[in-house]
Amino acid sequence: MAYTDRDGSGVGAGVGGWLAFLVLVLAVFRPLAVLVGLYLNLYANPNVATAYGAAWPAIQIFEWLLNAAMIAGCWYLAWLLNRRQVWRTVQITIAGLWVVALGYQLIDLVGVSLISGASIGLLLSYVARPLIQSVIFCVLWSAYLLRSKRVANTYLRHEDGIAEVFG
After folding, report:
1. Residue 124: pLDDT over 70
2. Which CA distances in Å does 96 have to 4, 26, 28, 105?
3. How confident is the model over 67-89, as a mean pLDDT?
């Protein structure tokens, strides 16, 4: 849905602006980044397979399945933002962002630790930066979804009219 002006007030509604950018991030940029990152992390350095030893096949399967689930989650959130314009969509999207960003990192950390036998402390040193980036991503987009006039006017809490936001 493109930019619309529901009541002539000039206040945006519809999936446009930063909201459209979030949909693009979820539908295209994040899945591509995940696939490229996964390939580089698993196969760019041949020593990675050696380091995991006998656990290497299980690590690969776990990583591919986890990343496929994360991409599916991103696609679902992008679809939801485009197709279901009710306030519940915003709530589901905020929870979903935390799951596909931060939850994904934590599940990956625990899963690799359990499969490989490596300590979580050792693995945490490798994922500290992505964990912090995930928290920042989630906080920024959650704040946007909760405070944006475009979001409030697109995903109405009530059936009719432009939403009154912060005033």
Report:
1. yes
2. 26, 11, 16, 14
3. 94
